[in-house]
């Protein structure tokens, strides 16, 4: 078990969803973590191979001297609340550190397990061409109930969606076969279905 991280949600299959500690915007998944043996500006940090490009913002590159050498880095902030999250390593000047290029160093002080189920924007390329822009702009929350087929145990989940309700269909696809969605209820926002 990794020190400093909460437990993995059951049935997500994508690792723990990590979010901005201040506003709970999705940043990355724990499955993308390469190492947590780093120090950042705020303390302990972890190196990730992937972060969300739609929920984060990168500053212009700067050169920074660190314990393992000089790097060209870009400061990473939350797109929603503009909180400092860490930095993306653009270039490593030491040949032994080049493997870190393109990786992101996230401050553990700035991220936490996401409080609600995925709040990830659906990329436009995954939207069907029939959807108009008014449907694509919708946002909200939906509650789903998942039942394990083997044990019969029911688990409620809250799903955040942006742009369209297709996020729920995607959520159904990511739930393992041993589970099934029993019902869906929208608690905030609107859903249009064809």
Name the features.
194 residues, mainly beta, Metal Binding Protein, Guanine Nucleotide Exchange Factor, Chain A, 3-stranded antiparallel sheet, 2 helices, elongated, disordered N terminus, disordered C terminus, Yippee domain-containing protein, Yippee_fam, metal ion binding
Q: How would you describe this structure to a colleague?
A:
The chain is mainly beta and 194 residues long. It folds into 2 domains: 17-113, Metal Binding Protein, Guanine Nucleotide Exchange Factor, Chain A (Beta Complex); 124-189, no CATH class. Helix content is 7%, strand content 44%. The protein has 2 helices and 13 strands. It is elongated and about 55 Å long. It comes from Heterobasidion irregulare (strain TC 32-1). Residues 16-115 form the Yippee domain. Belongs to the yippee family.
In short:
The chain is mainly beta and 194 residues long. It has helices spanning 133-136, 166-174; strands spanning 17-20, 26-29, 33-39, 44-48, 56-58, 62-66, 69-78, 84-92, 104-107, 111-113, 138-148, 154-163, 179-189.
Task: Spell out the blueprint of helices and strands.
Elements: E1 17-20, E2 26-29, E3 33-39, E4 44-48, E5 56-58, E6 62-66, E7 69-78, E8 84-92, E9 104-107, E10 111-113, H1 133-136, E11 138-148, E12 154-163, H2 166-174, E13 179-189
Antiparallel strand pairs: 1-2, 1-10, 3-4, 4-9, 5-7, 6-7, 7-8, 8-9, 11-12, 11-13
């Amino acid at each position: 078990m990794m020190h400093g991280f909460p437990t993995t949600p059951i049935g997500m299959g994508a690792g723990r969803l990590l979010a901005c500690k201040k506003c709970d915007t999705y940043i990355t998944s724990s499955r993308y973590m390469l190492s947590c043996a780093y120090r950042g500006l705020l303390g302990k940090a972890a190196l990730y191979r992937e972060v969300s490009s739609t929920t984060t913002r990168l500053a212009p590159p700067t050169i920074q001297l660190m314990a393992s050498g000089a790097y060209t880095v870009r400061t990473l902030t939350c797109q929603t609340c503009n909180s400092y999250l860490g930095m993306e390593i653009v270039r490593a000047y030491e040949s032994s550190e080049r493997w870190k290029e393109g990786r992101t160093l996230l401050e553990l002080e700035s991220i936490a397990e996401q409080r609600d189920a995925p709040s990830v924007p659906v990329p436009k390329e995954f939207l069907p061409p029939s959807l108009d822009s008014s449907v694509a702009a919708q946002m909200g929350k939906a509650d789903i109930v998942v039942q394990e087929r083997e044990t019969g145990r029911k688990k409620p989940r809250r799903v955040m969606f942006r742009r369209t309700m297709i996020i729920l269909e995607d959520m159904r696809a990511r739930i393992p076969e041993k589970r099934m969605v029993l019902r869906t209820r929208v608690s905030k926002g609107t859903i249009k279905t064809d």
